[in-house]
Amino acid sequence: MNRAQQLAALAPHAVHDLVVIGGGATGLGVALDAVLRGFSVLLLESHDFAGGTSSRSTKLLHGGVRYLAQGNVSLVREALSERATLLSLAPHLAQPLPFVMPSYRWWQTPFYGMGLKIYDLLAGPSGLGSTQLLNRSQTLAALPGVQPAGLRGGVQYWDGQFDDARLALSLARSIERAGGVPVNYMAVKRVHRLKDKREDGARYALDLQDRRGQGVYTVLARAVVNATGVWVDGVREQALADVGQAVAQRLVSASQGVHVVVDRSFMPGNHALLVPKTQDGRVLFVVPWLGSLILGTTDTPREDLPREPEPFESELAFILQEASKVLQREVRREDAKSVWVGLRPLVATHKEGAGTQRLSREHTIVVDPNGMVTVTGGKWTTYRAMAEDVMAACFKEGGLPWRESGATAAHVLEGAGPHEGGVALSEPPGWHLYGSDAQAVRECGGADVELGMGLTAAMVRYAARQEYAWTVEDVLARRWRALFLDAAKAKAMGPAVAELLRAETGEDPQLGAFLALCERYSG
Fold first, then answer.
1. Contact 211, 187 (CB under 8 A)
2. Element housing 321 (H / E)
3. Looking at residue 288, what is its pLDDT?
4. What's the number of CA atoms in the CB half-sphere (13 Å) around residue 262?
5. What burial letters (b/e) apply to 24-46, b meaning 16+ CB within 10 Å?
6. Strand pairing class (272-275; 153-162)
7. Other CB atoms within 10 Å distance of the CB of residue 240
8. 172 CB contacts (<8 Å, ≥6 apart)?
9. CA separation (Å) from 229 to 208, 239, 259, 380?
10. Cα distance between residue 468 and residue 462, in whole Å
């Protein structure tokens, strides 16, 4: 679907059953669920799909080992079930990954082993592998590069990992394939509840600003879902002010998560490492991903909500210090190839002194007096279950008539057909990330012209023609994860990508803005 086709869906007199605001994991999941139930769906994203938090996760599909330690069994059980479902829906973008908790005290192996056996039991038939207790030599073999001094053994268990931004893109393309209309770079400026009952069933008018072509539009909808992550309260405030009301209670307390990417040589194996309790009680991950290692993450409250948050010095120091404790080689600031930050939309408790580690990781759905449904919280692993809950809220509110589920649990995502398999997500990026679409990408021309880090000219052309890419950042941050893996290399690739995009779209690919962004990600 090209831009002209997207804009045609914004005809002023057409009424959409559902308009979803927000093109991250949650909004994309809701839109796909709705369109598979037979509703007409328009999804609007003010920037790029997964341009915010949804491309900045730790790349894990997990039940939440630390949530189990907190006693949140229901959340863990649901997430473990959803983990298995997602692995089956997008096998080219989501795969099992073995984790090891190294033990440096005598009690850690039996203690954590017992907890992870419960993790296995909760997973039931959705389990990915059995937890195993490892001796010292087995742990060293699984985690080459781990700190050997004082190592007693470890515990191996299984979770999943994925490419979050490309999974979001797969969802957007699946929505389009099913008959919905996903539109990026289309900002919602105003949500207006119509006062008079209309024969066509429209209850809302939304004023839009095209951030690419600068056009303005007004679309009509029977129901509206606000799925804008950490920014949901701003949308609520505007929509309620339109009907003369105020937000009674804010939903989100944002938590900042920082990730540092270093060379794979620090831990060259195919297992991830988990430290369940660092000096300040947080969890530390060392995860092999697309040929590099991700170190993270932090959990720091943040009041402001920038589109491009930057790490605090204390957060970087924490990650480097804790990683250096568990790895044989010291990790220094100059070892960082990329540093990126995401803002998690945690559900506010409105209690004094509640740190973000204790805020709810579960999602929350509210229906405001104007009838708009807002969803926030949750995590990538449970996006599909969250979408089902949102649709139930839409039915209860009365904006949409009840319709049976479209069976999203069995609806494989774009690119998940027969494809070139056998390459793990821990290895450098390549053609395998396109799944069954790889041949279509090659046919765009320039499949043998590499621009760096495995990216070819054909991939850039395909991103512009089929994957909604407009800017250099769209390509090198999300269609191809160069910026998230190595900011310096991404910067070097920028001019060639810009030239190809300009030829494809005829528009400014915003190279200057991307080069400045690379400087911020360089650590």
1. yes
2. helix 313-326
3. 98
4. 24
5. bbbbbbbbbbbbbbebbbbbbbb
6. unpaired
7. 19
8. 23, 28, 43, 49, 182, 184, 468
9. 19, 16, 19, 12
10. 9
Q: What is the tens place of the pLDDT at every residue in 496-506?
A: 999 999 999 99
From 148-152, 246-250, 357-361, 418-422, the region with the lowest mean pLDDT:
357-361
Residue 357 pLDDT greater than 60, yes or no: no
Going by their DSSP bridges, the two strands 181-183 and 41-44 should be labelled as parallel
Q: Do residues 268 and 326 share a domain?
A: yes
For CA atoms 84, 87, 88, 90, give the dihedral sign. positive
Q: How confident is the model at residue 353 (pLDDT cuts 50, 70, 90)?
A: very low
What is the SS3 assignment for 140? helix
Please name the amino acid found at residue 137: S
Q: For residues 252 and 348, what is the distance between their CA atoms, to the nearest angstrom?
A: 5
Range of the structural domain that residue 178 is part of = 3-53+166-251+361-410
Higher pLDDT, 12 or 43: 43
Two tokens, residue 487: 């900011």
- Digit-coded pLDDT (tens) for 302-341: 989 999 999 999 999 999 999 999 999 999 999 999 999 9
Domain count across the chain:
3
- Dihedral angle computed from the Cα positions of residues 130, 136, 139 and 145, in that order, rounded to the nearest 10 degrees: 170
Q: Give 62's DSSP letter.
A: -
CA-CA distance, 111 to 120, in Å (whole number)? 15
| Secondary structure letter of residue 429 according to DSSP | P
For residues 219 and 284, membership in a common domain is answered with no
CA 171 to chain centre: 11
- Domain boundary residue, one of 357, 375, 397: 357
Residues in the chain: 523
- Which one-letter amino acid corresponds to residue 458? A
Band the pLDDT of 361: cuts 50, 70, 90.
low
Q: What is the Cα–Cα distance from 25 to 440, expressed in whole angstroms?
A: 25
Residues 157 and 175 in one domain: no
Average predicted confidence (pLDDT) for the chain: 94
Question: Residue 146's beta-bridge partner residues?
Answer: 327
CB-count exposure of residue 502 (10 Å: 0-12, 13-18, 19+)? middle
